Amino acid sequence: MSEKKKQPPAAAALHAARQRLSTGWPMPLFLQGAFEFLQAALFSAFLVVIPWFAVWFSGGFAERSIESVLKMGGQVWLLIHAVPLRLLQVGTGADPSAGTGVLNVIPLGLTLIPFFLCWRAGRRIARASYTDQLWQGILGALGVYLLCGLFTGFLVGNEEVSVSLLAATLIPAIPAGAGVVIGARREAGSWGRLIGFDAAAWISKASQHSRWAGSYVWAVLCGGTLAYTLVFGLASALLSINLAVHWVDISNVYQQLRPGPVGSSVLTLAQLGIMPNLVLWTLAWITGGGFTLGVGSTLSTLQTTVGPLPAVPVFAALPSGELAYAWAFMALPVLAGFLAGWYFLRVGENHLDDWVSKRVTTRWLSLGLSTVALGVFVGIVAGALSLIGSWLSGGSLGIGRFTEMGPEVLMTALLLAAEVAVGTAIGYLVSPLLEHDPVLDR
């Protein structure tokens, strides 16, 4: 049998090129990541600019040019990415900075738009890459988002608003980076597949005491997160009920403003954008820490002092008048702590109680000590999460009295930690009475 005749190198290269043209070249991962995040940036900008254009076409910004409206849309895009805006006004007197202020209240509901777009991009990047290649896609994605923030910050400055280019470049990458990492983790199914680190194998090499301590810490973290999530859910339900009860008052404000169909739609979208902020303010209210709506206006279950407010329809639902029994709402975080304590019992990872009981022979004393410690630990976790949520939901509008907006961060965290701690201790002690063993019940 004769040997197959080999093709010349040039012919072989030409044949390989033809096959590559027919099948296509695979997109490099960093380029795919850049393309995914470019889509996310453009789509989020599109969703922000369209309402402004609608208001402009309806005559709401009749005195402004289309360039000015585009800059306003870019400023809002930066704001929903948590970039602070410095509002510039014509100062009078010797101090020209007297008329400036910082707008840094983040509309958290609108921030979810780029977050979920980047979450989707993270899933697509993880689907297209191996574990040791994932960094390439994420690096390309974040690089494009940094450039988008830089260009936006450079283009949107005018005589009314100035933006720090460094903040405009770096800060938008925070919610975008969180979205892409969480999305990639969701697609990978585990952190081990995501970053190539096998946590189970590492834990298996640790001593038994270390594994018990780790299980206890993890259960405490889950319990504190559960308690804070439950308080957030209860605050959301309370806010929804309050809005329904005051719906007539809210409608009256709409009628007095007469913003028209387009203006009403944009105003409603803006209020939906701050709805997570309002939930976190409600959470601060039920803890007793309270929140401020401008200098001199404080609302909590213990004290309510409200000054003049802007004509925003949702503010018509603020509690007013005599609230003699408002303090009863402080039982809601205790209830959340109770359920966290019940969860901890069901998990069965109270290794601190095992350790204490070996050193303190009196059972009621050892159980009391370990339960108090459990309540304190879970409360600290819930309070730490409250610090983050309260800080993100507040800020300054940069004008007049409204340089202080949002929860009393430290007081809310301290009170929430104490209330959750009490509820957790009670829940852990009482929940055995609520448990039933199906084997013993038969």
UniProtKB/TrEMBL annotation:
The chain crosses the membrane at residues 37-57, 69-89, 101-122, 134-157, 163-184, 216-241, 278-302, 323-344, 364-388, 409-430. The keyword Transmembrane applies. InterPro entries: DUF6350. Keywords: Membrane, Transmembrane, Transmembrane helix. It comes from the Bacteria. This is Uncharacterized protein. It comes from Paeniglutamicibacter antarcticus.
